[in-house]
Design goal:
The structure is a homodimer of 344-residue chains.
Chain A: H1 12-19, H2 23-30, H3 38-50, H4 57-64, E1 69-74, H5 80-95, E2 99-104, H6 109-119, E3 126-129, H7 139-146, E4 151-154, E5 164-167, H8 170-183, E6 189-193, H9 199-214, E7 224-226, H10 231-243, E8 250-253, H11 256-268, E9 278-282, E10 296-299, H12 302-318, E11 327-329, E12 333-335
Parallel strand pairs in A: 1-2, 1-3, 3-4, 4-5, 5-11, 6-7, 6-8, 8-9, 9-10
Antiparallel strand pairs in A: 10-12
Helix pairs in contact in A: 1-2, 5-12, 6-7, 8-9, 10-11
The first copy, chain A, binds a DNA duplex (16 and 16 nucleotides) through residues 9, 11-13, 21-25, 27-28, 31, 35-37, 40, 55-56, 58-65, 122.
DNA sequence: CTGAAAGCGCTAACAA
DNA sequence: TTGTTAGCGCTTTCAG
């Protein structure tokens, strides 16, 4: 017990002077170097424990050019997918002794670029990123790579870079979702997409279109809308869609929040789900089964995606020579609920 | 443009040698020191920009014993309150030029203690924490303070420490919630509490009890249950409660997830909400109004709480002399929806 | 097996 | 106004 208001920091120097050893011997003893006798190791470790010695991470980072820290950049956080992914990332990172810095790009690619600049100075050993909606060029990401920093993409990936990506089976899931609506009797199916630049946006739209085409259904061009992520704007876009004369009878949305907005609007203007409109969405909503009506979802393995992304990144950090970028796909599952039921 | 696969790091030394200045002059010029001529400042800044110089944060941290980084420790992340709070924290931190490390204690106080040890070695300049459910002693938190590290509590606070706390009006909100149920005609009101140690848990239970007493309602001791945070266990506890002969007609829960479990159980065993059971809960659920039935909530200003906590912490970091700990309360609002409606 | 010494990149007191 | 120097705490090479 120490009776001081602020405890002095205990560092190698202090341990060394108490033990009457040199700093380097203490350092080596703590890292279990073969050069040090067992007896000395024990003495050193005992005292370190007693004084609760914690090495200064910045001194060590500076010296070894390794920070044991990774950055996670997500476009938003009010989205259950990203929250679960962060959970998975955090889990894997902790397991491997890494620290996790969080950054939110707020779907703004300029901000994303700014963030990236903050990361290339050694603060982190690698970057996990899910791109913002409006990102279309990848120069800033190349900058990271050029600094020798590994980067792993998850969900919203870039295909213009040679690096690891972790995604779900976007094309197939979109295809399946659309097919699901068709099988439930929908003829006029609309799609709320994420944006035009992202590869997942493109894949999900392609899957949607192909499912329509394969089933000889016409695509009404007004039924393919691109949402923005801004509540007010998306609300208007979707309301517009649902108020149109030739209203859709099925809706597939690429993001949870679009489906929720659709729910709100349906409630307001008395469109019955699923009788008048069937809805399916990509979503990791915990309350999907408690909504009125319960919501049919394509659910991504968010935790697993985050975990896999972090593990890949750490592998790339620790074994840069042997590391070969991979494109990993972890499948989503369709969970059928009442929003697409046929009875009504 | 550089045609190398890995760009050499540009540091002060490099800038200095190119400009034929000393390292310290370059350093001062970049930090806009009054000692340096404008002409030199311009030259230096121009080159720094061109070469995209980013100072090494660890060298600077090591030297100044400041990392411009704060830690956030939350008990869980699958909870909209904490997600929104993190959003607020992130926002304030970015505004002030701070980085945010995230740690999840998973409601485990041993893990929490472990985390705390990681934080006292200079990695962060301060700690934001919301305690895990089972934390009952605060020795590990004192360790942080003894190192001279400021700590700010939010939501799940400790009252045994002299430090800033940001909470909502827990007692009043619990009182109001209970009163709300009473006014809607409930006679047999149950309560799912968070735990026994946390001060917010105690306050919420007190508010509940006082509201009952003030309205001459008996408290059935079986109706005061303490949930664990573990889904399986909580499910059984709540199911038990709702299956009991003398079933409650009102339920007040301190955490969103308890109310959602209750919803699931009601659906399963055909208890009608609100006819048979009225439910109100603390919650920041985005879908509260879309549930069947829509859920009456006490909604905490989560973003603001996070923001305020971060700003307080940064103030404590930057002006330690003048900083006086405060106990800040930001009020919650009761949003009445169908789960407590009287018509039925 | 242990120790001396250099240096990671930066800051700041002091000198010039 | 600019430069020299010491040193933050740690790791690592090399010498003893």
């Amino acid at each position: 017990m120490y009776n001081v208001s602020i405890m002095a920091t205990v560092n190698l120097k202090k341990l060394a002077s108490i033990l009457e050893l040199s700093i380097s011997t203490v350092s080596k003893a703590l890292r279990d170097s073969y050069e040090i006798s067992n007896q000395t190791k024990e003495r050193v470790k005992k005292l370190a424990q007693e004084l609760n010695y914690q090495p200064n991470p910045y001194a060590s980072s500076l010296r070894r050019s390794k920070s044991k820290t990774i950055a996670v950049v997500v476009p938003e956080i009010a989205n259950n997918f990203f929250v679960s992914a962060i959970n998975g990332i955090q889990n894997a990172a902790h397991l491997k002794g890494y620290h996790v810095l969080i950054y939110i790009s707020h779907e703004n690619s300029n901000y994303e670029k700014e963030l990236v600049n903050i990361l290339i100075n050694g603060r982190v050993d690698g970057v996990l990123i899910s791109l913002s909606r409006d990102t279309d060029d990848v120069e800033h990401l190349k900058t990271i790579q050029n600094k020798g920093l590994p980067i792993v993409f998850f969900d919203r990936v870039s295909e213009d870079l040679d690096s690891t990506t972790i995604t779900t089976d976007d094309y197939e899931s979109a295809y399946k979702s659309t097919l699901h609506l068709i099988e439930k009797g929908c003829k006029k199916i609309a799609n709320c997409a994420i944006g035009n630049n992202l590869s997942i946006a493109k894949k999900r739209v392609e899957g949607f279109k192909d499912a329509l085409a394969d089933n000889k259904l016409q695509l009404n061009s007004n039924f393919l809308i691109t949402c923005t992520g801004d509540y007010e704007i998306d609300y208007k876009l979707i309301k517009n869609l649902l108020l149109s004369k030739d209203r859709p009878d099925g809706l597939f949305t690429s993001i949870e929040s679009f489906a929720l907005i659709a729910y709100e609007i349906c409630k307001e203007i008395n469109i019955r789900i699923p009788q008048d409109l069937k809805i399916i969405t990509f979503s990791n909503l915990r309350t999907a089964n408690l909504l009125a009506p319960s919501l049919t979802t394509i659910t991504q393995p968010a935790f697993e995606i985050g975990e896999a992304a972090a593990l890949q990144l750490i592998k790339a950090i620790e074994k840069p020579k042997n590391y070969v970028p991979e494109n990993i796909i972890i499948k989503s599952g369709l969970i059928e609920r009442d929003s697409t039921s046929v009875a009504g």
